[in-house]
Amino acid sequence: MDILFLLFCLIQMVFVIYLLHLVYRETSDCKKIFSVSNPLISSKIVPLVYDFGYGQFLFNGDTEGFSKFQLIHRDFQDPYQDIKGLLKALSQLSSTDDFSQINQAIKSLYQFQITAHLSSNDVKPIAEILANKLRSKLVGKRSVEKVEFVNSGQLFESNKMSSSNYGSYVANPLGVILLDSDNYVLQKAFVICK
After folding, report:
1. Which residues contact 58 (CB under 8 A, 6 or more apart)?
2. What is the DSSP string of 108-126?
3. What confidence tens digit (pLDDT) does each residue in 138-184 have?
4. CATH 2.30.22 placement within the chain
5. Torsion-angle region of 180 (φ positive above 0: left; ψ -120 to 50: alpha; else: beta)
6. CA–CA separation, 89 and 161 (whole Å)
7. CATH topology for the 137-194 domain
8. pTM for this one?
9. What tens digit of pLDDT does each residue of 16-66 get?
């Protein structure tokens, strides 16, 4: 009886060590991905990635980690295929000051939010950091002075938003609204409607 109990404990211990090894590998991959990024963004997104990755990873025992998760609302022109690629792209895009790349970083952030089933409050601090990088950028001959965020459940406003589907309410935002000092819309937010 004691031998069976010891054998059972040994098997459990080996299993726990194996899980810890897999989790360590995933977290070190995540740290590597964000090591070159904006430190403010890294400090805010890495905990979200850990929360998402730990729960899903430990529950499924998936050795591929993040790369197995299908992105929700991925466009064919997006340069990434999976969560790991999205996070790497988000890291690279968020460390630049290029207008179009910052917009793509915001879209990537919202795609991560949707895929990981996070609330808008979870990603808002990161979105604000990225949106601040858009302020004072030129769109045509006008300067971006204000950035408006779109929330899920918000009424769709065709003068400030664009969508690829029909609906009266926003299901998921994938961008932000950019305005000049006269509240002229410089860029509509892309959204998915419901």
Report:
1. 19, 23
2. HHHHHHHHHT--HHHHHHH
3. 998 999 999 999 999 999 999 999 998 999 999 999 999 999 999 99
4. 137-194
5. beta
6. 24
7. Nucleotide Exchange Factor Grpe; Chain A, domain 2 (2.30.22)
8. 0.74
9. 565 545 555 554 555 554 544 555 565 566 666 655 554 444 344 444 555
